[in-house]
# Entry
Amino acid sequence: MFDWKMEKTPFKLMIRRFINYWDQLYEKYPDAQVFVGKWGDETKNNEGYRELYTRINGKSRKEKINLAIVRIKEEDFIEHALFRFIDVLNYIDETFFKKLKYGTTDENVIALIRHGFSRGVAELILVKYKFFLT
# Structure
């Protein structure tokens, strides 16, 4: 996920990558379960008490897309929690830190992100509407 953030991977492509990974997984292991968190409908190997896993193999394309979206959003939450610890990297390598945290080293984009804009919107503003900024 960190690589995807640093590469500015579009959300649509992240979803496609999750689905492709799951499809390849089921070609090798037809009975495999994947972790989907609270959206699961099975326990791990039918043992335990929390339904955190599912078999993507039997899901429709729409269900796979929805599960990929919630997995990406859950990873974003975990990533946000990890950033408290990653902030230490700012003292080690500032360029790497900025690429990891903001997906860019452009100070203008970073300033807009810090003011609440998403990276995509910040980049769009700077490309199409830069003359409005002072």
